[in-house]
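User: structure tokens for this one?
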Amino acid sequence: MPRLGQRELLLVRTLPREADRAAPRREFEGLLGEVSVGRSASLHFVNEGLGSMDYLGYLGAIAARQGDREQALRVERRLAGAERPYFFGRHTIWRARIHALLGERELATTLVREALSRGYPHADELHTDIDFESLRDYPPFQELLRPKI
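Assistant:
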């Protein structure tokens, strides 16, 4: 059996266990209660206002990707009303994702700018986030992401 070095041991210790990886799904299903998981569950989830901002954001992005504009905008409105301290623009970046997926480049870029101004800490990920693919060739978005000296 090969011997593991310090780095490999650290990696093995930090890998999520199978139980840890299943926890978010169980939590999501628990929030849904008796509703079966699927499209109707997503609608129930958003309509009842259950769960966290990230769950809502994912549901809005999924709806936008599936072409369900009404559902995506319903989620976006919920996120817009989710003003609380210490969000650091996370709810706004979800709104930007939804609008980018709907093809609304100007509004999406404006929302990205707003999220950054609120302290969104993952600006580096915006360069590769597939949800913002529609903005890659949009000059205002390119300028926003250009490094400032």
